[in-house]
Structure formats: C-alpha cells, structure tokens
Amino acid sequence: MTETRWLSPEEREAWLALVSIMFTLPGSIESQLQAEADLSLAEYLVLAMLSEAPDRRRRMSDLAAATNTSQSRLSRIVARLERDGMVVRAGGEQDKRVVLAEITDRGLERVEQVAPGHVEHVRRTVIDRLTPVQVQQLALIGRMVDEAAADLTARGLASDQP
C-alpha cells in the first residue's frame, strides 16, 4: 500500500479555494440568470453555444460536451427550450441517427437580450478581479484540471495513483 501524499498547507489552501469556487460561483451566476432572464445556467449555455455555432446548430453529442453536461440532462434542457420555442431538434441530413439542436430566431433574440447582463456579471465576479496574466493562467489551470477530471471519469477511476 502506498503512503498517502498529504497536501502541504499551500496545496490545501489552493484546494479549498477551488472547492469554494465550485460551490459559490455557479450559484451566483445561476441567480443572476434566473433573476434577469428566467433561464438556468445550463439553458443559457445551450443557447449561447448554439448561437455561436456554424448554421446555429450542433450535434447533441457535441453540445453535451461543449456545455459539460450528460446526454440525458442535455435532452431534458433542450426539451424545455423546445417547449419555449427557442430550440428545435432535427435529424442529420446525411445520417438520420444524428440528432441536431438548432437555435430558433426566438432563441437567438433571447440569448442576445441576456448576454450583456450575463457578461457584466461574469466580469464583476471573475474577470475584472484578475490581471490579464491571471486570466490566462486561470484558463490554463481550468483546462488542465478539467482534462484530468474528464480523463479519470472516462476511465471510470474513482481513485488514481500518479
């Protein structure tokens, strides 16, 4: 059995700061979107990702990856957005087994209305509190941690030894 590599005081502080961010930031952003736009963060992300996509559509599997959500959760989110007339689903032109989600004109109008307030909240909460170098570091750190977590999840590893 390998001896536990305990966190140093600096590593513990960094870890606890990250845990705090994981719990407080989503709630802050969700509250802003709910109050100003009656949208969840997940719904907003789906609309935003579709609005930025070529032809305003994406494969559902790609959309799930882009929004960091499971296929089943994405399906429920898209169903809600469909009911509100902001998204439609269709089969792929080349392969009918592929399901595409496409933002409607109503959905595009909605994301364009919501985006300024959302971006302002993100700026106030995160971006404007950091230097440009820290923003770059945050992006790099986020990608590295996300890739490691996704890799471990994909391999089904509850615990991993270095």
Describe the overall structure:
Residues 11-147 form the HTH marR-type domain. InterPro entries: HTH_MarR-typ, MarR/SlyA-like, WH-like_DNA-bd_sf, WH_DNA-bd_sf. This is MarR family transcriptional regulator. It comes from Kocuria aegyptia. The protein has 162 residues and is mainly alpha-helical. It has one domain (12-154): Arc Repressor Mutant, subunit A, CATH 1.10.10.10. Helix content is 65%, strand content 8%. The protein has helices at residues 9-37, 41-52, 60-66, 71-83, 105-125, 132-154; strands at residues 57-59, 87-91, 99-103. It has a three-stranded antiparallel β-sheet with strand order 1-3-2. A hairpin with a 7-residue loop joins strand 2 (87-91) and strand 3 (99-103). Helix 1 (9-37) crosses helix 5 and helix 2 crosses helix 5. It is globular and about 55 Å long.
Task: Please give a handful of descriptors for the protein shown.
MarR family transcriptional regulator; MarR/SlyA-like; WH_DNA-bd_sf; 162 residues; WH-like_DNA-bd_sf; Arc Repressor Mutant, subunit A; mainly alpha
